[in-house]
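<instruction>
Derive structure tokens from the sequence
<entry> Chain with its tokenised backbone below:
===
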Amino acid sequence: MRPPFPPSPERSAELRRRFAEEARAERPDLSALCLLLGAEADRALDEAGIDAAQIELDTLAGQLPFRPGGPRSWAVSLRELLGDRCGFRGSAADYQRLESSLLHEVLVRRRGLPILLSVVWMEVARRAGAPVYGVALPGHFVVGFGPPEEQVLADPFDGGRVLAGADAELLVAGATGGSVEPSMLVPAETLDVVQRILNNVRAWAATRPERSDVGLWAVELALLLPSHPARLRYERAQLLVQRGDFVEGAGELEAYAGVVAAVDEAAADRLRQQARAARSMLN
């Protein structure tokens, strides 16, 4: 499969404008944000492709039974459609592919990371009227159905398997060595889901220096979210320097030093030294 590469600067600027606008909407649209992210990753995803992905989600939703029942019935119906009939699921190999973090590719390949498969489950279920939401368990994203007192969890990475209480405990224990806390089972906010997807993309790129372009656009999209860690500016500066953009990278280091200086002057001085070192690379 061809590797996805970012679009032209003009197309990228338009996608980022729309991404920032959607992220600041009163009720951000998860599928729209994921598809704009995908278009920033993959120049082959044009407007027709974005529309086709939304239509595919609508089509899948139309194949669900009408109001199948309570939370468990919804979870089983989604598993039967998406997991059993359509073959959506994940494997260890999916963690090695950038496409596993791109919604349009996941819809075609029917493979992806837990969080992207969960996005498919959520968006299909939401369109059908299900009481669905994402649940950001440590190290493994799943979906939930129903209110807290009736909550049913399903694991799209495992084909939509409906989880028993012990299953969730095992997932959390495998990721953290700890146990499930009630705070882990609350519905994930849309922008937190997008931030987590971008974190996965950044992690993928961090182990592949030849794809620092991916790390850079992932950081820059994360910086467009209304709430983001300030340290992302330092990460962006490092990537710019790594890619040979010493002037902009140095400027970003100095700007971040100004933020850090309010709480840690010594760290700010180290950042200014890094900025000077970056500029010296021009000589």
The chain has a mean pLDDT of 93. Residues 114 and 174 are 15 Å apart (CA to CA).
